[in-house]
Amino acid sequence: MVLSLSNHLCGVHLNLNHSRRASSLHGQDILRFHYDFVPVNDPYSFDSSVTEFPISFRKVFHPYNPLAGFIIANGSLKVFPFLVERNIAALEIGFEDENFVIISVYFLPSKHIKEDLNELKKLLLQLCDRNILIMGDFNAKSRVWGPRDSDHRDDLVLEMADQFDLLIVNKNYSNLSFNGP
């Protein structure tokens, strides 16, 4: 999903499926398409650190085998990390006269989603007076945001979206930009 938050700020969400090649290729795409910020899920890591992105990018990831974080390609952005955990990261990005909180989440499909959602809810309560954008992979299936049948996790995600009056935006017809081992 590509998102432009103002006339001059552009970001894209990436789920890299722990692929080294996808990380390398998307690093080139970030430069080519002039993305300012990139919430990243399931990045490739070596010795617990995210690698394969140009060194000119700022990386905001948990120091041990991160599942969610950010690549900041625009060096002029003011970035303040609110929270940097293994599966959830939140940044405030200041650009011109606007501030946005962008949250990157990756919820493991093998873990019960309720604990992760509670952590996200606490964060949303702390930041309720700000412009917030959540980008990530909840590993929940629902006809609301995709063509697949629902699973047991979607009810909890939909309940949270209703509780916080969140708008769900997903292009369920978009193709993968990279598909590989």
Automatic annotation (TrEMBL):
Under the GO molecular function aspect, what terms does this record hold?
A: catalytic activity
Q: Which SUPFAM superfamilies match?
A: DNase I-like
> Which Pfam family, any one, appears in the UniProt record?
Exo_endo_phos_2
Recorded hits in InterPro entries, A to Z, give: Endo/exonu/phosph_ase_sf (IPR036691), Endo/exonuclease/phosphatase (IPR005135)
Residues of the Endonuclease/exonuclease/phosphatase domain: 101-178
Query: What are the TM regions of this chain, as residue ranges?
Result: none
Q: Classify the source by domain of life.
A: Eukaryota
The name on file for this protein is: Endonuclease/exonuclease/phosphatase domain-containing protein
